[in-house]
Amino acid sequence: MANKLDKFGIKFWLASDVETRYFLNGFPYLCKDSTRPANQRLGDSVVMKLVEPYVGKGRNVTTDTFFTSLNLAKKLLQKNTSLVGTMNKARRDLLPSVRVQSAERFATTILKHEQATLTVYQGKPRKSVTLLRTMQPTVSIGSDRKRKPETFTCYNVTKVEVDVLDQMARQYTVKVIQGQHLLRLKCSPPEVCALKGSSVELNCSYTDPFTGTNTFKRMYWFTEERDGKPVDLSTDPQYEGRVSFTGAPGHVTLRITDLRESDSAVYNIMVEAEEPGGIFTRDTGVYLSVIDLQVQMHRDQYGHGPVLTYPELQVQVRGPDPYGRVYLTCQSSCLVPQHSSYIWYKTGEEIQSETSSSYNLKDFTREDSYSCALERHKDSPSLFVCVWGSSCNRVSHTDRKICAPKGSSVNISSNYNSYENITSKFWFSPALSLHWKNPILPEDLNEDSQFADRVQVFETERGRSTLRITDLRESDSAEYRFKFKTQSFEWTSSLPATTLTVTALQVRVTRILVNQSSTYADLECHGSCIPARGFSFTWFRNGETNSSWPETTFYKGWISLEEEISCAFRGHEQFPSPPVYAPKVPSVLVTSSGEILENSSVTLTCSSDANPEAKYAWYKKNGDQDVQPLSNTSQLVFSSFQSSDSGEYYCVAENVLGKRTSKLLFVDMKYKSMMVINAIRLALMAVIPIPLLLFSLWMSHCRKKATLSSTPEPNEPEGTAEIESDPDNISTSALNSIPAVKPQDIEEQETPV
């Protein structure tokens, strides 16, 4: 065997214990097995023989790609035994889409079949791993950069037992081992799920398989190693003030409070024995998964998604007892913090008086359905259940949240049941209430003009309604609800339904290598929605595409300063992302209050079109190659311009894809002495009053002359006088200054002397 140390020898089928790595069962490979049925795979037959003594006891079996199959998983489940193992993508019982590489690295796809969960994880750019598990119905996704599913963590800590057994058989020839050896450890349960913010206790028992003792010099918990040595949790700053250790000989308990999502890990124990150099190690302890009620990501049956689902809350019904009482209990698939408050709902409406995890019913009917939720997580209620029969009134939306790309289609489903015959049923969105005739009376989505020719409602099975929206727009982002009516009942629950988010793509620059005229960049077509399996991408360069370019979410290549790069979902090229490009040649603008004079205010402004947005820097040309920027903003401001500030200026606009420099801008000050300016000001102040004084003296002289030279004629009308003066120089003020002739004066003039 090429991958074994020994190229020749007898091949054995082996099963080992995960706890101790000890040999449990095995038999040699004897080529053709006459006892194996003709229609049974060799791998299935081998596993069933190896685990035969251990089935029916709730154990788990870990297998590799040679053994794992859906048929094997089903057979083990029938014997109360779960399975976790990697699958060969060539298996005929896998969908063809599973064999397609995911477009995005660290993406996870989860498929369900009855009690089996298939997880496909794109851990490397060109390699994905497929894992089948029947141990647990939910799958947690890591919150770190790699977003590794916890199913793979579980597999990794249990997969090496046979290999280690192989090494032990080769190396360990005596009972007492100097240096490191294994500690027999048993943790119950081996996997723990807990909610963010709660507390948890991890319990394990241990013994030394060689000496049988359970008394040691020192013991501590760890999750990681540094420089090859385990890090004691009590000294880890991340856990400061949140961990405590208790226990007795043979038993140890780790308590963690105020749980965080980063606490998700495999918790192991390191033991130092009394004898010198005696150190016991164990690399599989208990796996803790900390979640924030949004842990599982999958696609719906039509390939749309991703869809976020939640840890399951379930209402357990017991009764009725001899007195006709029914007992309800709200149970969670995750560890719930102690003293948590609950909310109970009856046929969609909240029951105000109940806050405990148990609810005892005395009065109920066949029409009633019940649901529960945690007080802090009202948006994650359990499914409604009937307490008497199975035909109560209830509505349960399949998905809490759905995220879909702009331009695509989405299916939103709801399961429903009615105690009476339904008279009407429809989908609606509360966000459109302003368009309804009555804001409190929901209207069918089919009647809204915003969804004209884009909405379809169908039922694939009785009691399951599906709303399909095509040609998705960002304005379609809203909550969608299903309701029905009967002659005497109307479903009016205000519980959260399905929230749809429609987002567009963006091009994200992940890595760059810049030179003078171009940039080598790693680009990612990114959106808040992870694309569904089967979606591919189209990349554009200056609005044009090329069949030789990749159809994945990543694009690598040289990009010149003149090029613009964008992306879109293939088949939805009419909705491309905004392009990314280096800055265009910057334009510059000079702003001042007038001519640039000494001590005046001057502002230089630089602007450039760029995506991502450009950063700016201003420089003054002086021949220094290492000149420091005068300003790192788009404006260079001189509050008091001096002659030394005159010169040639330029700005630089730069983003991750490149940089551009503006043309030189010459800024010069007008050289006018302030002394000359002040002298002119004084001269004007002295000269301007002289003409005003001369004009005033002339006017005064004119008034006096007009008064002395006026003589009335006998035949002239009363009240008139002739003035010997130039008519053009007569002013209104001069006329008004002539005294009026009184009647008695005229009579005296007519009397002869």
Q: What is the CA-CA span between the terminal residues? A: 166 Å
Quickly give the CATH architecture of the largest domain. Sandwich
Q: What structural category characterises the helix and strand content?
A: mainly beta
Main beta-sheet strand count, sense and barrel state: 6 strands, mixed
- Shape descriptor: extended
Strand segment count: 49
Structure, explained:
- Helix content is 11%, strand content 35%.
- It is mainly beta.
- It has five domains: 12-156, no CATH class; 174-291, Immunoglobulin-like; 299-502, Immunoglobulins (Immunoglobulin-like), CATH 2.60.40.10; 504-581, Immunoglobulins (Immunoglobulin-like, Sandwich), CATH 2.60.40; 587-667, Immunoglobulins (Immunoglobulin-like, Sandwich).
- The strands form 13 sheets. Strands 8, 10, 12, 17, 18 and 19 form a six-stranded mixed sheet that branches.
- It is extended, with a radius of gyration of 44 Å.
- The protein starts with 11 loop residues before the first strand and ends with a helix.
- 27% of the residues are buried.
- Residues 171-181, 294-310 and 707-753 have low confidence and may be disordered.
Secondary-structure map:
Elements: E1 12-16, E2 23-28, H1 42-50, E3 60-63, H2 70-78, E4 82-86, E5 108-113, E6 116-124, E7 127-133, H3 150-156, H4 161-171, E8 180-182, E9 184-187, E10 191-195, E11 200-207, E12 218-222, E13 225-226, E14 229-230, E15 243-248, E16 251-256, E17 265-272, E18 279-281, E19 286-291, E20 296-298, E21 307-309, E22 313-318, E23 326-332, E24 342-346, E25 349-351, E26 358-361, E27 369-374, E28 385-386, E29 394-397, E30 401-405, E31 410-417, E32 422-428, E33 455-461, E34 464-469, E35 478-486, E36 498-503, E37 506-514, E38 518-526, E39 537-541, E40 554-560, E41 564-569, E42 580-581, E43 587-592, E44 602-607, E45 615-620, E46 635-638, E47 647-655, E48 658-661, E49 665-667, H5 674-687, H6 689-708, H7 732-736, H8 743-750
